[in-house]
Amino acid sequence: MDLQTLNTPAAVIDVGRMHHNIGRIQAHLDALGVRFRPHVKTTKCTHVVDAQIAAGAQGITVSTLKEAEQFFAHGIRDIVYAVGMVPAKLGQALALRRQGCDLKLVADSLPAAHAIAEFGRTHGERFEVWIEVDVDGHRSGILPDAGLLIDVGRALVDGGMVLGGVLAHAGSSYEYSTPEALAAIAEQERSRTVRAAAHLRAAGLPCPVVSIGSTPTALAAENLDGVTEVRAGVYAMFDLVMHNIGVCDLSDIALSVLTTVIGHQEEKGWAIVDAGWMAMSRDRGTQRQARDFGYGQVCTEHGDVLGDYVMSAANQEHGIVSCTGSPDSGIAQRFPIGTRLRILPNHACATGAQHPEYHAIGEDGSAQTWPRFYGW
Amino acid sequence: MDLQTLNTPAAVIDVGRMHHNIGRIQAHLDALGVRFRPHVKTTKCTHVVDAQIAAGAQGITVSTLKEAEQFFAHGIRDIVYAVGMVPAKLGQALALRRQGCDLKLVADSLPAAHAIAEFGRTHGERFEVWIEVDVDGHRSGILPDAGLLIDVGRALVDGGMVLGGVLAHAGSSYEYSTPEALAAIAEQERSRTVRAAAHLRAAGLPCPVVSIGSTPTALAAENLDGVTEVRAGVYAMFDLVMHNIGVCDLSDIALSVLTTVIGHQEEKGWAIVDAGWMAMSRDRGTQRQARDFGYGQVCTEHGDVLGDYVMSAANQEHGIVSCTGSPDSGIAQRFPIGTRLRILPNHACATGAQHPEYHAIGEDGSAQTWPRFYGW
After folding, report:
1. What's the ipTM?
2. DSSP state of B270
3. Taking a C-beta distance cutoff of 8 angstroms, is the pair B157, B205 a contact?
4. Cβ contacts (< 8 Å) between B84 and chain A: which residues?
5. Which residues of A touch B274 (CB under 8 A)?
6. N or C end of chain B: which has fewer CB within 10 A?
């Protein structure tokens, strides 16, 4: 198999770019003296995760217990499930720990802490729990100076569980696009999480792990004093949202969707392609950013960016490719039926999830099938 | 298995509502005297398609050749692949026809018609081809009065292929929301497609099939003179986009995502749930409609609509549930951790695609697993 013989639409990974991206973040965090724990939700693909670990990553982050099960079966023991634990999932978590998985849970409330401790005691299991800290009002977590932080820590310890540390995710970093703003939100993520850890320790509670991260803050961080590990996911592929934020070049984006031109509406300057939102995802993450790429940036089959051509609209299995400036009346000659193009996605996590497998393209154009999974 | 024991997030089908929706469109089209060919891209699920055929549907519409392969393996022969044919996929289409599948192809250009005819002659296969007609400028197709229509028809017939008919899809029907406007676009879809068929016949070309359809126009059509069959897909499930268009009640929506409350930000009036965009899809189809439901309408576990509560934001595996009016400061008491909710989706095709299976809930709350497939 090679690039030229793949059926379309297909999710394609440029393996050289992927290794470059993986090496870049690892070198940055090595230099800052912290461990790196990649988030596998972006690719859900053992081939990619093997490359991340070979480059120096220690353990993984998951967004579902299915990811934990799949990667534990693949041989990875050190896993943090970075979504607030809900009582009904404790049986699934227990089964993983009983099989030898060093699974860490997350809680940000007293009801969750009590439920974990009660279930753990009932089943003779000392769950390790990390407390989620809210560093930017983005989503979940306890404010670093809130008394609730200590109450939750104490409920876990008094309940017989292992308080493993604190965890934060500066999801609001996606809203910035200058080096200064990114460095500032990275420092806010670091300092608030470290402060939460200090509060726990001052209250006589253990807090060995201080875990933070998002792709923008991980790459923008200049100082990680007090942090023990960083988490990030999308950096391995990058995407147009990350490009608009300013943490990668278009030529760093390792994931694209290979597609074929199936028709035209010449007077409108449209080429119709066989990748619609089913292949790209419905993610319109660049819609409110500096540059709106529609459903994606058009490139040649070999990955060279075609300046002003984007997928401007999408139905389920149809995409409309057009020029962002004035309509290209010669588009049928430029991209005749059968022309193969590659589309860089807005959001690599969302686009990857639409595909049962990646096609990993080597420097010589050869294609390997890398399966990925989905569901819960 | 029953509703109460399903893991979350999960895609749930209310079987009673589904049968009601399937029966409604079938009765409407039976009364108008046309055949009905459901589009299986919405569910990609044999259980749903079996119910559609049991209700009277004749043949199916597919958006990918994988759908054709899967449903042909399930025993369905009469299939139209309603996406413009691209030369590289002709081998796959040929294999299906050689196995006995009555697969119909679609073309809207001379290059595609010539490619199909040439490939067919080379391999001794008389492909049946339908010509796509553009009835509303929405996407693909040839304008009904364009001379190109006759040229393509003649290229197919002279090339030794079977010209099976014309096919149109009034995708712009999604932009309307009054009965009058929907009836008008339905009539436009009908009259323009019938006119295209008349032009072909006047030129001495065959045109046995006149196929039109979208869920809004199929339900709004009052007269289908000259039409031989209608196609529609999302009607079996319905969704919030269809509700805003005005073709279903909220209580008709058969698909929802079951989710569990995992935390709160009380001062913001947020409940955090374990269904994010991975479970709902990134589809924001109601964003520009009369009522924006965010990522979905919140219901109780048993499917009763909870008025002003929507999923207002979503990350990959986190959803934020909030009240569209003023923040609900009592949300943690209203929806404690562990509360199970159901979220009606914006777009049933996109939400279903995120899930490996549906859980079909009967009147008694029992749950059956109905697998669905994805990919190409």
Report:
1. 0.97
2. E
3. yes
4. 262-263, 272
5. 83, 86
6. N
Q: Which CATH architecture has domain A250-371?
A: Beta Barrel (2.40)
Helices A110-123, A90-98: inter-axial angle, 10-degree rounding? 50
State the architecture of B33-237 in CATH terms: Alpha-Beta Barrel (3.20)
- Residue in chain A closest to B313 (alpha carbons) equals A139
Percentage of chain A surpassing pLDDT 70?
100
pLDDT band at B325 (very low <50, low <70, confident <90, very high): confident
Is A109 in contact with B337 (Cβ distance < 8 A)?
yes
Task: Return d(Cα A61, Cα A74) in angstroms, integer.
Answer: 14
Which tokens sit at A148? Answer: 């609730």
- Helix, strand, coil % in chain A, rounded to nearest 5: 35, 25, 35
Query: Does the pLDDT value for residue A371 go beyond 90?
Result: yes
Query: Is pLDDT of B1 > 90?
Result: no
Q: State how far the alpha carbon of A144 is from the alpha carbons of A20, A172, A374, B320, in Å.
A: 35, 16, 34, 21
pLDDT, mean over chain A = 97
The yes-or-no verdict on residue A201 having pLDDT over 90 is yes
Contacts of A265 in chain B (CB under 8 A): 134, 140
Which chain B residues are closer than 8 Å to A7 by Cβ?
Answer: 88-89, 92, 376
What is the structure's pLDDT at B30? Answer: 98
Residue B207 makes CB contacts below 8 A (sequence gap 6+) with B153, B163, B165, B166, B197, B200, B201
A367-371 vs A357-361, strand pairing mode: antiparallel
Confidence category of residue A293, pLDDT binned at 50, 70, 90: very high
Question: What per-residue confidence (pLDDT) applies to A1?
Answer: 83
Distance of residue A262 Cα from the nearest chain B Cα, in angstroms: 5
